[in-house]
Write a structure and sequence with these properties.
Elements: H1 2-7, H2 11-17, H3 22-31, H4 36-43, E1 49-55, H5 60-75, E2 79-85, H6 90-94, E3 106-110, E4 116-120, H7 125-132, H8 140-154, H9 157-169
Parallel strand pairs: 1-2
Antiparallel strand pairs: 1-3, 3-4
Length: 178
Amino acid sequence: MKERFLAAQTFAEFVEGAEALADLWKAMARRAVPPAELVERASSLGVRRNLLVLNEDWCGDAVNTVPYVAALAEAVPGFELRIVGRDANPDLMDAHLTNGSRSIPVVIVLDEAYRELGWWGPRPRELQAWVLDEGLALPAEERYREIRKWYARDKGRTALAEIVALLEATREGAGQPV
């Protein structure tokens, strides 16, 4: 996993190379600010963590989540984030399926030795529950509009809170996903 992580793109490289949703990726990267209390919680862990993100530039969930995760990683000493493509890494993706689906983004938490400790994705639990229940009853266009509104109101807070909780749960390197 170490070689894959080190060969992966940084968030800045990913954003610079984005083709689909390129302007939105750049805008979200500029305005993504992690909540101070979540930066504090992650910083207080006092551990080195590598966050490997399975992603594609066309993904609406990713463009609304990954910039915040990158901003958190940037703000926390000892954290580093890298991005790999979902489609270019089918083995990694298939090891992190959501209900049998190759849903992204997926944030894989690695320790300082690049061992996987757990993973998060593809959406905050609250939003995922809505999508799989009420959201499925809506026409796709309306469902995606509601998803975008949810993300705009949330500003990455829920995803980051879940990811920080995962980081806290794996602090000792237990190796179990939350």
